[in-house]
Amino acid sequence: MQEMYAYKCDKCGKLHHPRYAVCQNPDCGGRSFTEEPLSGHCKLITWTRVFNLPEGYMKAWLNFGIVQFDNGVTALGQIGFDERPEIGMDLVSTVGVVKEGVGKDYYGFIFQKP
């Protein structure tokens, strides 16, 4: 099973996603991080429907959203249902194949209804 992670700065404790080389806390500058699984309940902050998908997507359109997890981390991913999402709705994060490639699949967040 694939997992996605937040990265906790070992110096100040700030959570990041995705991982950065240097902590994004302006008062810190830490360079070492501990992985923490990023999954579970989240709320939809905003979303968009994309019709002009790049090569490799076998759909006419996809919904993408930005969510906020209970720990405050925000992340971008696909919305895994076709009906129109509502801002503020509760979702659950899963990890799955977001794009099929030749010899390699690409994994990312897929947000589902609970």
Structure described in brief:
This protein has 114 residues and is mostly beta strands. It has strands spanning 5-9, 15-16, 33-37, 40-50, 62-69, 74-79, 90-100, 105-112.
Task: Characterize the structure shown.
With 114 residues, the protein is mainly beta. The chain is 0% helix and 49% strand. It is built from no helices and eight strands. The strands form two sheets. It has a five-stranded mixed barrel. Strands 2-1-3 form a three-stranded antiparallel sheet, with no helix packed on it. The two termini are 19 Å apart. The relative contact order is 0.22.
List keywords for this structure.
Zinc ribbon domain-containing protein, five-stranded mixed beta barrel, 0% helix, NA-bd_OB-fold, ChsH2_Znr, mainly beta, 114 residues, globular, three-stranded antiparallel β-sheet
